[in-house]
Amino acid sequence: MIGLGYIGLPTASMLANNGYDVLGVDVNEEVIKKLSSGDVHIEEPDLEGIFLNAFNSKKIKVSKELEKSDVFIIAVPTPLRDDNKAELKNVVSAIVEISKYIEKNNLVILESTSPPGTTENLVGKMICENTGYVAGRDYMLAFCPERVLPGKIVYELINNKRIIGGINKVSAERARDIYSSFVRSEIFLTDLKTAELVKLVENTYRDINIAFSNELTLISQDYGIDIWEVIKFANMHPRVNILNPGPGVGGHCIPIDPWFILENISRKDTLIEKSRKINNNMPVVIADKIKRIIGSYKDTKVALFGASYKEDIGDTRESPTVAIIKELKKEKIDLRVYDPIADNFKYELSELEASLKDADLLVLLVGHRLFKNIDLGLIADLMRHKNIFDTRNFFDLSVLQIAGFNYYKI
Ligand code: SAJ
Fold it and tell me: In the chain, what are the domains?
């Protein structure tokens, strides 16, 4: 397993717990050091348990160096570059390593989300250039995308249906044999490009749905209507399922994957691109609203609740909170961010009381469950002006009114 991140580590652990001898490889020395001492570097329910089980039974070992293997799985990050193209350098490095060890009849699986065509035109082509081995003739080549939800990775790894693409039938079937050792749901086989596009389509579907919701938010504001009521009632229709508006779409998948669909085509003016722009603009919309709420105050202090990209997880990658802070930093506002579960946040985080002391406005950006336990009386006592702006429909209006807050909702 090349890459021991959010996908590689749980997948490697599952394989090791289901009969395979697994070598987990990562370029990050800290990660290897931690894992070698039986310590997991990622916060995710059940992950520590499945890794330790594999580690203690010596079915998994970790290293910076690759070795000869029957199967090579690439699960490295494929982030977005500034020009909205896929950064595939980690995949390229993995191919360089695999090329040193690959032998005839091995299986190479790309799991990293990539633009359609990558498995054949990058992985297959480079291995051929490096070794002379032709995919489908000398070795097997497959694309097996993950579709697990952060916060539920281990559960979904086992229980979600999977799609596997192969350069030929034998490759797809061989990959299915590997994954079926731990996947309890169905596994469907197809060709490489279809599997690559399916992965991107799933996340893009969600991005477009959220963009629709965010656009409706702006429209309902023009009408003076509560968007949450509109969506609640519309979703009572048996064939309507509109997602929630919010301060923007974060994480390392949904804001990125739609661009991968567009990477190798020249089509202009797509719904996909427009949706991306709507969602990307939400932090600006939220920052503008914040500025309007605090407009007349002097020496303003604002408490932002939530730094991660979504509720109940610590992951702060592509968090809308970062984009909102960037916007607000253009003004003279004393900003405090409170998030007791956020990891590696770009800006300084404050304790609860320090964030609220003399604040003019509390902005709820992420609906962490633990925020529900905060005493509203304490919040009211600490704040200078009792204003709450709720971007997630998180608070109960009647309770806030009793506590004397001015309540603004997205
Ligand atoms: N969001 C909204 N409104 C909503 C739902 C989400 O604004 O109604 C925002 C969240 O706050 C967050 C962002 O969207 O900032 C993304 O969150 P998410 O829960 O929709 O998705 P991820 O990125 O945590 O995981 C997605 C999942 N894809 C789908 O549900 C189609 C997951 O199954 C994928 O495996 C994962 O991307 C991935 O790795 O590709």
Answer: 8-196 (3.40.50.720), 294-409 (3.40.50.720)
